[in-house]
Write a structure and sequence with these properties.
A two-stranded antiparallel ribbon has the order 1-2. It has a two-stranded antiparallel sheet with strand order 3-4. Strands 5-6 form a two-stranded antiparallel sheet. The longest helix has about 40 residues. Helices cover about 50% and strands about 5% of the residues. The radius of gyration is 40 Å and the shape is elongated. With about 350 residues, it is mainly α. The chain starts with 14 loop residues before the first helix and ends with a helix. About 25% of the residues are buried. It is a single-pass membrane protein. Its EC number is 4.2.2.29. Belongs to the transglycosylase MltG family.
């Protein structure tokens, strides 16, 4: 039986078929081109929008100080979002990571306490995180504070961390100190005590040796004398006179009989009492009670300022042995007990008149 010839699949296309094939190819290329163009436009729009998000004002409504913690990018982003510097949500978080990576050549992110201005942009935030100056805190130690009160100041100071060792009385220089978040309290205390040591040594080397001869023989004794001067008067012009009275009494073997030493002992080193001293207080036993014990007390009773140290090292001249408050912030000085008695009576009359 005769078989039909197999179909010829390799035959040439006719003119109409060839033209249709070319048209279909052109359509596919055109379609792909349009898709690519659309994708390119979308990518460009994304980059443009991303750059806008990077440089546009951020959500922060008012200037804010923020602690940027250690621990990596995640914790940085968390701190920024919690404080309103970076918008919340995964999109902002992701874009911040991308921006931080893309600008990584500009420096590392620092853990610090930093100030961010109102409406800060992401670009500006990254600049602050990399190059911003940490917020500076200050702590003022006033002249005449005791070690006990200085310790309280240090423990209550914001932004410091860590505990403190024992603070020696008179070992801290009265001054305003500056520090940044995260500083160890012990490191700041070391700076305070180092400054006092240098100040005391410099003043000691320039002391009036003739005025102190036979009475004040060490820097430590000078520090004790200066602490008494500091607590007796706040008037700079009186300090050398107060120092002279104490030196004159020491030379003659007289008890110093200065109230601040009694207060120091009664207050357990606090340096202040919530009430006036009584005659009974003056008889209360304490190694610091200069009404009971001759000579200098066993240690300083506060941290004296530079002016009191200078006054102790360069006392006034004269033979005064007594002084009593005037009631107006200063003191009347006397050479004899009779003069002192008259000054005390005048002081009591003034107080009585003021109370009426």
């Amino acid at each position: 039986m005769a078989q039909e010839p197999a179909s010829d699949t390799s035959r040439k296309q006719g003119p109409e078929e060839e033209s249709g094939s070319r048209a279909r190819k052109r359509f596919r290329l055109l379609t792909k081109g349009r898709v690519f163009a659309l994708l390119l436009a979308a990518a460009g729009g994304t980059v443009f929008a991303g750059y806008g998000h990077y440089t546009d004002p951020g959500p922060l409504q008012t200037e804010r100080v923020v602690v940027i913690p250690k621990g990596g990018t995640g914790r940085v982003i968390e701190a920024l979002q919690e404080n309103g510097i970076l918008a919340r949500g995964g999109v902002s978080s992701l874009f911040f990571k991308v921006a931080m990576y893309a600008t990584r050549s500009q420096g590392a992110i620092h853990a610090a306490e930093l100030k961010f201005p109102e409406r800060v942009s992401m670009a500006h935030s990254l600049e602050i995180l990399r190059h911003g100056h940490p917020v500076t805190h200050s702590l003022t130690v006033a002249e005449g504070l005791t070690a006990k009160r200085i310790r309280t100041l240090l423990m209550q100071a914001p932004a410091l961390q860590g505990d403190l060792p024992t603070i020696g009385e008179g070992q801290v220089a009265p001054q305003t100190f500056f520090y940044v978040w995260g500083m160890e309290r012990q490191a700041l205390l070391h700076h305070m005590t180092e400054l006092m040591g240098k100040t005391l040594q410099a003043i000691w080397e320039q002391r009036d040796q003739a005025a102190l001869q036979g009475v004040i023989t060490t820097p430590e004794q000078l520090l004790i004398l200066a602490s008494l001067v500091e607590r007796e008067t706040s008037l700079a012009e009186e300090r050398p006179q107060i120092a002279r009275v104490f030196l004159n009494r020491l030379k003659q073997g007289m008890k110093l009989q200065t109230d601040p030493t009694v207060i120091y002992g009664l207050s357990d080193g606090d340096g202040v009492l919530p009430r006036p001293l009584t005659h009974e207080d003056l008889q209360t036993e304490s190694p610091y009670n200069s009404y009971l014990h001759p000579g200098l007390p066993p240690g300083p009773i506060c941290s004296p300022g530079r002016e009191s140290l200078e006054a102790a090292a360069h006392p006034a001249s004269g033979n005064a042995l007594y002084f009593v408050a005037t009631g107006h912030g200063g003191h009347n000085f006397a050479h004899t007990l009779a003069e002192q008695t008259d000054n005390v009576r005048a002081y009591r009359r003034m107080k009585k008149a003021a109370a009426q």
